[in-house]
Amino acid sequence: MVDDKHEADVGSRLWNIANAARERGGIYLRGGELGHFAYVAYLIRDHGLRTEDVTPEKVIDVIGSAPIGNEHRVALREIVSRDTTSLIRDLAAGFSAEELKGIVLQPEADSPTDRALGRYGDPDLPASLRSLAIDLLHIDDTDYVADLHCADGTFLMNVLRASRPARVYGSSNTALNACLAEARMSLVGAKHLIECRDGLLVEHPRTFDKIFDTPPFGMQVALLSKDATPYLKSLLDGSDPMGRPSSADWLYCRLAYDSLADGGTAVVIVANGALFNGRDIQTRRYFVDNGMIRAAIALPRKLLAITTIPLTILLLGKNDGPIRLVDATDLATPGRRTNTLSEDAVAKIEARLSQDGDKSRLVSREELAAHDYSLYAPRYFYETPDLINPVSLSDLATSIERGASIRADDLDNLTTPEDTGLYFLRLADITDGSISDDLLHLKSVDPSTERQWLRNGDLILSKNGAPFKVAVADVPDDRTILANGNLYIIRLDTERVDPYYVAAFLASEDGKRSLECRVTGTTIPNLPLRNIRDLQIPVPAMETQRRIATRYRASLDQVAILKIRLDAARDAASASYDEEMGR
Question: Which one, of 297, 312, 417, 345, lies nearest residue 128 by Cα?
Fold first, then answer.
């Protein structure tokens, strides 16, 4: 309780000093800058300087003799100016050396001192996720531990508090972050090296026993090629057996693996898209076939404040056996803006890593290969429906086409208010299993798109969902309907299956689960064409199909009638006042 009161008091004094700086010189302290100024104030205290003797020249002298690397001194000088001397003087006068040291070292983003000035440290990665990563690494006191995107050293501070490794290393993309990380490591006396660089831009990777990395989300591979070293060039030009990945996440995973000592372990947090997109199949195959992945843990959504992108932890290291896949997407504690992982959730994740269950199992290379080497764990825990006489859709269809891709500007130029007999079917035109009668009119249709013109009995399935939309086309002889690129046109062999029966199946719970098993993507579920072709459809006797199709069509008719009644009721409600008042 005393500590809490002291922290609150420190926070209050910080706020007062920051407020005075704003009023005096228009200096608005952001969280990250707090650590730098507090470090300079600590050096002044540590040198025994009287606060009244602190001048801009003295501040520069103090920074020049700071026990940090020269490049970090340069960065520190950049943030300190003549205008901030009074702020540094106030910090040195307002706090003891130990208090200033505590402010610099504070690694969490929700302490009383932090709340006084806003978030700093590493606010993007929740403490529970850092704790989980440390547990997964099993750090020993002889280990050399690295954080390849260390920001201001918060994860390394957590490592040093949880264990005492022999050495730590961090690389940060910004000089100011690297400077604060360096200051923190120096203050705790850790044997360390902090560099300002992107780890991929190295001639040869360093070697570490344990590695943690959170690569920048959404990084474009093309941006990395500008200053590529020979190491990176071999990964970008396709000459490496891994192939040229589409997702930069895999470049950083490769760097982490190549930086491991024998028997080492790396924890890398990546965006889920890299785990199942079609463009990275060759890269995933390389990692799986070469035994470079031990486990993949799918995390809950919205754990980070900066993005809602779903994430997965990849546990990298030599692995000659199957890969452990863990679905932890159910373990979030919901919050107003972000979700969190409780200590209990972290414990459950660690337990799932060690034993099979309904959210965890070992998956062989052969099974991974059958699923395009997808490493997105939830895909392997879907309940596949038990179907009668299942047949792949490709065997039941005479053709499966994707609709025509037309840019919005081009579509605007093609549409007309006149009924030309030419129509355009969009995803929004399909509701409740039926196609709207109110389609866009087209001025003309390119003859080369004839394969995307609908025919009677064509099954229409949306490419993106969920839920996925399905309908059966009913095209009058005097109409030409062109389907949009967000739709699949499936022309079935009607001697084997009834189109309305297949639509009824896809609308059923068994059909929905079958589609879920074929989906890629999490933010926007997507059905690739190759997955559609492999979709299993139960094929009972034609008599059974027709009974189901008749019931399905009758239900669609009933929905249409109810919609007409609903529209009429709405019109009556809106007209009730006018009719009664004679308007």
Answer: 345
What CA–CA distance (Å, rounded) separates 583 from 575? 9
- Angle at alpha carbon of residue 555, lines to 553 and 557, rounded to 5°: 70
In tens, the pLDDT along 115-169 reads: 444 433 344 678 889 999 999 999 999 999 999 999 889 999 999 999 889 999 9
For residues 319 and 291, the answer to whether their CB atoms sit within 8 Å is: yes
Return the biggest CA–CA distance within the chain: 98
Q: How many Å apart are CA 76 and CA 581, to the nearest integer? A: 77
Other C-beta atoms lying within 10 Å of the C-beta of residue 19: 13
- The CATH fold assigned to 390-561 is Adenine-n6-DNA-methyltransferase TaqI; Chain A, domain 2 (3.90.220)
Task: Using pLDDT thresholds of 50, 70 and 90, give the confidence band for residue 33.
Answer: confident
**Any bridge partners for residue 390, and if so which?**
538
Cα atoms found within 13 Å of the Cα of residue 344, Cβ hemisphere only: 4
Extract the runs of DSSP E, i.e. beta strands, from 397-495.
Answer: 397-402, 415-416, 422-425, 430-431, 434-435, 440-442, 459-462, 470-472, 480-483, 487-492
d(CA 298, CA 326): 6
- Cα separation, 209 vs 168, whole angstroms: 10
Give the C-alpha separation, 58 to 489, whole Å. 76
Q: Where are the beta strands (DSSP E) in 241-340?
A: 260-271, 293-298, 311-316, 323-327
**Residue type, position 392, single letter:** S
For 40-52, what is the mean pLDDT? Answer: 87
User: 268 forms bridges with which residues in the sheet?
Assistant: 213, 314
Residues 6+ apart with CB under 8 A from 415: 424, 440, 441, 442, 443
Class in CATH terms, 127-148+199-378: alpha beta
The Cα–Cα gap between 98 and 107 comes to 15
In order of 53, 282, 338, 539, the CA distances from 545 in angstroms are: 92, 41, 47, 8
Domain ranges of the chain: 2-117, 127-148+199-378, 390-561
Return the bridge partners of 193, or none.
169
Q: One-letter amino acid identity for 365?
A: R
CA distance linking residue 174 with residue 90, whole number of Å? 27
Place of tokens 């020049």: 64
Indicate the pLDDT class of residue 81, thresholds 50, 70 and 90. confident
Distance CA 476, CA 343 (A): 62
CA distance linking residue 266 with residue 412, whole number of Å: 51
Q: Give the CA distances from residue 386 to residues 341, 359, 381, 413, in Å, rounded to whole numbers and listed in that order.
A: 35, 20, 15, 48
Quote the CA–CA distance of 528 and 536 in Å, as a whole number.
15
Can you say whether the dihedral through the CA atoms of 192, 194, 195, 198 is positive or negative? positive
Per-residue pLDDT, 573: 87
Confidence class for position 44, pLDDT limits 50, 70, 90: very high
250, burial (CB in 10 Å: exposed 0-12, middle 13-18, buried 19+): buried
Cα four-point dihedral sign 129, 133, 139, 144 = negative
CA–centroid distance for 12 within its chain: 37
pLDDT tens string 446-465: 999 999 999 999 999 999 87
